[in-house]
Amino acid sequence: MNFERLGTALAIIVACACVGPALAQTPNPELETCRTTGLMALRERNPAIKDVTLDVDGMTVAKANTKVEDTPIKTIIIGDAYLEKGKNDTRRTFLCLIGEKGKVLLTFFTDK
Predict the structure, then answer these.
(1) pLDDT tier for residue 27 given thresholds of 50, 70 and 90
(2) I need a labelling partner for 14 at 20 to 30 A (CA). Which of 43, 46, 55, 85 fits?
(3) Which residues sit opposite 12 in a β-bridge?
């Protein structure tokens, strides 16, 4: 049995296990931009909303090369979001359109 190879393999497995969760917790800048922009828009209509949490694992982030009239759309994000109102969280479907230079063009939350 080659203990040197076994030790190297174990070291790689341990290193991956340690790095994996840290990478998973690193927020996608586009998701965070959409989340904060959406939260600001929601608070304008309903100040009782304390926070928005995105279901990052279930989000679809799609690169796009399309336009709405003359406005380029570069990224489309859709998935579940949870709106925090006091002790209650409500699930909503969330849509975000991002244009050139990372500018958020639209954030949309379904009513229910």
Answers:
(1) low
(2) 55
(3) none
